[in-house]
Amino acid sequence: MSDQHKGAQIMFSTMQDAPLSIARILQQGSGPHGASAEVVTWTGEGARRSSYAEVGRRAARLAHALRDLGVTGDQRVGTFMWNNAEHLAAYFAVPSMGAVLHTLNIRLFPDQLCYVANHAEDQVVLVDSTLLPLFQKLLPELRTVRHVIVVGGDKAALEAPTGVEVHGHEELLDGRPEEFDWPELDERSAAAMCYTSGTTASPKGVVYSHRSVYLHSMQVCMTDGMAMSQADRSLAVVPMFHAMSWGLPYAAFMVGASLIMPDRFLQPEPLVKMIAEERPTMAAAVPTIWQGVLQYLDADPHDMSSLREVVVGGAACPPSLMKAFEEKYDISVLHAWGMTETSPLGSVARPPVGITGEQRWTYRASQGRLPAGVQGRLVGDDARVLPWDGKSVGELEVRGPWIAGAYYGDDDPEKFRDGWLRTGDVGFITPDGFVRLTDRAKDVIKSGGEWISSVDLENKVMAHPAVAEAMVIGVPDEKWSERPMVAVVLREGQQADAAELREFLSGEVARWQLPEYWTFIPEAPKTSVGKFDKKRLRRQHADGELDITHLT
Ligand code: ADP
């Protein structure tokens, strides 16, 4: 509060103080949009469908069942599931009854999974039957879990330790009332939680509130956000266990957009088939998924004409990928930036009006413009706040109503400064508010005192027609302390050697940035959510596992 206002009387508004809640989103989706919107779950052969009204009824039945299992107040209910209709019902039932949904990232290492389920003190876990073999290994180590609900398949396939009861999902829901008297909750209370994938340290818990989910959903639907509306059919490739599937499920219920859920069929072939048959208008996934889809389509063309826009985020999207989608399939690729800590939608790259030609691509390849709900600042090495001048490079810090202000039960002051979240992402901001990230702080390459952007080099190498994927890390160098090393995955049936690729880069980057270390790998190491795993590549390099060409 400014000095001028200290001690002054506050005049309150005459507006109602209705809490922003997930139950409200559920009512809107399952009521007015209940008959017109549907969730489609892919089964491998085809699709199964439920109207949003049906999802609402199943959410009510699940809430009754969970109450009977003793779930009250703020207890955590975990999900160990793919994207499907049952997971969607849990997304609404658990927070709306006042409990807390904890989406477990099935791709974390088993010890990390046990860590997060124990840390969050999950009481109940819903598990897809196709994931039982994986879950079985964890169960004996889960200290607080009392009930496991097996979705689909046979519950007898799970061997439970003493003190844990196993239930079949359908039997448990059978005969339960199809309505639930959703309690009126404090909008600031916990609704859902998600742990970061822990690429650097042990996973950290981010706890979303009803209010943050509600406001974030509105941002997803804004025209300059993802522009989701009742006219959309949204293919949610991004897993519901990764940053809440980027908020798509809640946003879709808010406006009555249908959802297409791929379940476990995340490979290019079924995704392409889903698009051709279910005709989504929008879709969202990390760049590596779209790289795979593009390669598949090149070999086996399908009708992609239903897609008006594809949202790409979670890692820097190579401009070559955006251009290929547009030129070959007339699909617009929208680049977005976010983190588990930012709900996750932080910025979206829609160029300002009136911008054309190459300049338009510069905007579109950026991480995008920070919206009103996400305030940003750049901070330099000496904690100095830097200007938005399109040149000064620093760490991006953000704050706002859907940005985490702390981690759950885990003080990590390093990540927060004076109420701002330190993103660990480095770049600059233009005067008109567009963020351009050059690296993650820990991936920055410092060569002879100058910074080289690994992301920039990757994008430029990936523009070569023979290259499917390229990862760049800094490797120790006697003279320059660090130099970039490029790890290349070639497209199937394509050839290119280090000298040719370096030549290809020579007109694109400054001479001193041209990498001299190259390696060709059959597959890029990826994290649990499909991003380049640079930590693993660095380890492979340190352990001498890579066959390196040194160009002089
Ligand atoms: P993790 O940190 O474990 O990968 P998140 O999914 O929360 O888990 O990742 C957030 C990070 O992903 C961001 O801090 C940023 O480094 C990266 N990221 C997300 N979107 C983009 C993007 N469009 N461009 C570049 N980096 C991105």
From TrEMBL:
It comes from the Bacteria. Its EC number is 6.2.1.-. Transmembrane segments: none annotated. One of its GO terms (molecular function) is ligase activity, forming carbon-sulfur bonds. It is an enzyme of class 6 (ligase). Keywords: Ligase. Residues 457-531 form the AMP-binding enzyme C-terminal domain. It comes from Saccharopolyspora phatthalungensis. Belongs to the ATP-dependent AMP-binding enzyme family. This is Fatty-acyl-CoA synthase. The keyword Cytoplasm does not apply. Gene3D superfamilies: 3.30.300.30, N-terminal domain of ligase-like. Pfam families: AMP-binding, AMP-binding_C. Residues 39-408 form the AMP-dependent synthetase/ligase domain.
